[in-house]
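Reproducibility note. Readers wishing to regenerate the assembly model reported in the main text can use the exact inputs given here. Chain order matters: entities are listed in the order in which they were concatenated for prediction.
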Amino acid sequence: MSGFLAGLLVAVLPLLAAGFWLGRRTARPTSLAGLGTPVEHATFATLHTASLATPPLRAGLTEETARKAARKLRSLLGTDALCLTDHDRVLVWDGVGAHHRTEIMERLAGPLDSGRGEAFPLTCDTPDCTVRWAVVAPLTVDDRVHGALVACAPRESAVLVRAAGEVARWVSVQLELADLDQSRTRLIEAEIRALRAQISPHFIFNSLAVIASFVRTDPERARELLLEFADFTRYSFRRHGDFTTLADELHAIDHYLALVRARFGDRLSVTLQIAPEVLPVALPFLCLQPLVENAVKHGLEGKSDQCHIQITAQDAGAEALVVIEDDGAGMDPGLLRRILAREVSPTGGIGLSNVDDRLRQVYGDDYGLVIETAAGAGMKITVRLPKYQPGVHSAGRLTPK
Amino acid sequence: MNSGYAVPAVALVVLATVLVGAFGLRISRTTSDFYVASRTVGPRLNAAAISGEYLSAASFLGIAGLVLVQGPDMLWYPVGYTAGYLVLLLFVAAPLRRSGAYTLPDFAEARLASQAVRRLAGAFVVGVGWLYLLPQLQGAGLTLTAVLTGAPDWLGGVIVAVVVTAIVAAGGMRSITFVQAFQYWLKLTALLVPALFLVLAWQRDGAPSHAFDEPAAFREQRVVRVEDGLDLRLEEPLTVTVHGTVDGRVHRGTELRLPAGTHHIDGGTRLTFAEGTEVPAAGRGVDDALSPSRAESREERPLYATYGLILATFFGTMGLPHVVVRFYTSPHGVAARRTTVAVLGLIGAFYLLPPVYGALGRLYAPELTLTGNADAAVLLLPDRVIGGAGGDLLGALVAGGAFAAFLSTASGLTMAVAGVLTQDVLPSRGVRHFRLGTVLAMAVPLGASILVGGLPVADAVGLAFAVSASSFCPLLVLGIWWRRLTPPGAAAGMLVGGGSAFLAVAATMAGYPGEGPWHALLAWPALWSVPLGFLTMVLVSLATPGRVPPGTASVLARFHLPEELRSEVSA
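Running the prediction on these inputs yields the following structure tokens for the assembly.
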């Protein structure tokens, strides 16, 4: 019997889940039903219908968004048929009389050009067709006509003309907001491109100086260092793709550290602990190297003796956890907060704030840098990288096999 | 079996797992080791890890049990479990890796750019994961009962659940790949070494082979204790000595001659069979409606059941959540493909062994078909055939391997289910929620395993495969190879195919409708539910041509082009 019960449980669970989901989907603010007069009820209903039509339109005017919004708009206007068009074609026809599509499109040239609403009778061969009149209201964004809302009715009606005009104006506002959303996305993309990390000029200068110092005394070492330098610059100057893999980024860090060690010799020691599972993770290009550079700078700053840097990358379910830790001078947390908020400009190098900004833009605000530090207590920077993020794909392999 | 050896063996396996997990990381102290420390996982290591995660209780215990009870027909199980990777290799492995998806919901989102399909795929991952976890916990209970006589059935399940939840919730293993690879070799050793000794003992015994094609028979006088009530179906009269209740009458050591027909034997009864008696066919008593039904329907319609099994295992492997995430570890598409080839070799080698145990079990422990504990055959055989301290040691090795099987598969599944629960179901993100997700991921199947009781382990896994094959196989194959797939099509296909398979599974688990052609259809749903899933997905996609996601062409190009070309395309 217990088997039967368990099976029943297994069968009922998905039904319960489906019911819960349906309930969530169809939930209406019915709690207000007892309040107010019939007129107020009508107002609530209208506002609710309007609010339902909003989300699809916020994505701009396309066939898909028009299809989602048209039914709600038609119930708002209470007409037999409603269609949304852009400049060239009917995006969606909701309701009866879809055979008028071409006729409407032919008659729309005028209103779309002038940007003024219009009402005209339709010719129809079907005797019982209820679509006899069409009311056209253009959809305008920044004084440019994007398309038209056409409401069809059996007879001429001044009320419908007025209502269609108002609804079209409301739709236009939503489209303007959509436009705004788009320009915001474009702005973010431009910003990401502008933030694309550059290697610091100090580093180039210092590296060349170190290599120069080896040219006479140890030409072989100088040659190796030049090759490291070439590899590192090739990686940093590459132009295609905004993303790389953790493995490639670590190799770049390796080249970087080789050059730094040539300069500081035994004062710098590095421990590396990498879970091999996370090496294929895609991440924004050059977003760890600046953190290592920062650790080197802090570690050697003002101290004559040893500096130790530890880099770990762990597997944490759907995320990779990268920690970069140094035992150097550390930093006052208040100052750091101001630097990250861009109130104070950091002294030289690519700031942590650049990396922080880019991570937040790619992965969202939950994925900014987490920095633990205090003056004289070293610094520990934690980066969380989701293993999968829509739109984040590493460009081709650079590392030789 | 002597628990004095087995308990330390199990403890040792748990300890070794934790140690490899904690210290198996490559650490470099000098920059010259940089390349060593940041070397990606090679195909062979990753293949061992995938095999370690994949070879579950069903493989370790279940197959031998089925072969023991039902003979060589059951060899389709290991064939199906292996061949699933061939389908994965041909159609899915490399494009799935190139898609950059870590989990199946990730893949749905990457391909169809739809949050709704993503959430639906997440729901199916949880469903398949739970269905698959259930037999792992049951197998653990079985092992513990065999090792520690008198331990309650649920104890082993609880122990595995607690260990796995603790490991996963504490932040997982630091080097999960090494742990899983280690588990594979451990499982292979734990089956291979005793198998060699068993075969040697069998040779010394004069290599008897009569039981392979005839009904199994007792080779010596044997006392069988019936744990749960069962029905004996006798074709011929049977003479047996009874301590207990048969057909409602109490006997105390009397020799009974039971006429042909069905006899009910109450739980706790001891039957003593004489040498040479054929092992009678047993059905479970009416009070336990679960396990016999699938076996009976298999006897009724062997061809249908076999094809249902083949389809489920061939197409179900690609949708197992804990297998899919491991492909992310491969650095690129070609490596993913090489890994799959290596997996085929590794698990192919492993699956040679369980049938050996099943066949020897028919010879040396035929009464297991009566006690309903056929899944314990692998654990009991070393003691039965070899005996003495040697048998105890080999038995301990097998028990340790069995625990490794539960641990690795269960932890992989729990990780996958908990990940989906945290990401797509529970409200907000964070470590605390991952722990909550872990507990939830384990609590549901644990509760179900205590409730459901004795579904044969390999059968229960077959049900999980059927649901996976009907929902994820259409999504992956059409998603990778068909550019006209739309989000509504994918959602409808998963709901209709996977949903119907799920309902069929639920009906079977509830013991409904019991017998007849309907029962066979519901107990082996893959044969109709997989085509149904594909058909729905194709038809609904064709009916909604306007919903093909923009950018499908570039997404498919990324799936199919080797990574070397990608930079040139995107530059």
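We highlight two features of this model. The beta strands of chain B are 27-28, 222-225, 230-234, 238-246, 249-258, 261-265, 270-273, 281-284. The CA atoms of residues 239 and 257 of chain B lie 4 Å apart.
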